[in-house]
Structures are given as structure tokens and as C-alpha cells.
Amino acid sequence: KLPLRVKRKAKSRHKPISDPNTGSATSQIATTPERWSGNTAYDELALAQKTGRLRRNSLGYSADTCKTVIGFGASAIGRVGEGYVQNEVTRDSYARHIASGRLATSKGHRLTDDDRVRAAIIERLMCDLEADVPTICAAHEIEPARFLDSVERLVTLAEEGIVDVENGFIRVRPEHRFVVRAVAAAFDAFLANR
Q1: Could you give the dihedral angle defined by the CA atoms of residues 155, 160, 165 and 170, in that order, rounded to the nearest 10 degrees?
Q2: pTM strictly above 0.70
Q3: Structural domain boundaries of the chain?
Q4: What is the CATH number of domain 113-192?
Q5: For residue range 26-38, what is the model confidence (pLDDT) as tens digits?
Q6: CA 174 to chain centre
Q7: What is the phi-psi region of residue 124: left when phi exceeds 0, alpha when psi lies from -120 to 50, beta otherwise?
Q8: What is the C-alpha to C-alpha distance for residues 71 and 87, in angstroms, rounded to an integer?
């Protein structure tokens, strides 16, 4: 049963997110790397970014440190220990599997060492706007030379002042945060082979 009257909402302690010049929240978020909302004290993603704990998975940005993502529903993608899995694509097929008490997983991809390193580099770029390629490679016991072709793809972006690249350390300039996907794409083996 619905109440006849709805109580007034308590005044929010969060500050509104708007640009003082334009009133646009979008312009403020896009141009201020350390602020994803108006008040970082209550914003879990902003706090995670500030402390270097921000992560990115198949669902988007997250402060969750769990590496397993379970996908529910037709065509959902999940991440488990050694790779990615995808559920049946059609609703009917998905429903038949679930109704019969079986998993609806239809395919998977086991990550290679190369995939893991590329994923780590891309995640750091997307979350921190920077990636130390030699350090990431060392953590995975892989020679950084394997990724030189990817770093070379950034030359044009460096010449345009979008990124700084020095000794394998890549930093996206904060004012160009909105093109971080283009920077990260240099390390995407799937895109490189298209």
C-alpha cells in the first residue's frame, strides 16, 4: 500500500556537481581527473581513483577488488580465474540451460600471459591515466620489448601533446582524459590485428 503523502526528502549533504561557469556537470567531470562527482568524500570511485585502487572490469569502473565477475542473463560476460566466459546469447537457449539446472556458459577465452599484461596496462591507463609498462611487465615476468610496437603507436598522440612517453612510462595529460580509450587502444591486441 502506498502512503497518501510522501515525506520530504532530507536535504542532501552532497554538493551538486555543476561547473560554476556553465552549470554543466559533464564538463566538470570530463576536465577534472580527480573528481568524478561534486564531493569526493562520499564518492567511492573518486576515492578509489585518488588512492590508486580504481579498477575496470567488463561492467565498467569499480572500487571492488574481486577479480571474479559473474554474468547473469543471456549473452552476459563474466571473468573467472584464467579468463572470460560468455553465457548463451539467445534468451531461449539461456532459459533452457537454467531451467535444466545447468550453467548457461556457451564459450570462454583463456587468457595468455600477453593478454594479462595488456589488460593490466589498459586498466592502469583507464583508471590512473598512466601506466609504467616496464614495471607491469616485470610483475608478470615478461620482457617489455614485446610491447614496444604498442608504445610506438602512441608517437602521434605524443606529438599532438595528448600523452607523454618516456622509458616505457605513459602518462595521459589530464586535459586529454576524454581520449584515454584511444591511448589504451594502442595496447589492445584484438584492435591491432583488425
Answers
A1: -110
A2: yes
A3: 25-53, 77-110, 113-192
A4: 1.10.10.920
A5: 433 444 344 444 5
A6: 17
A7: alpha
A8: 7
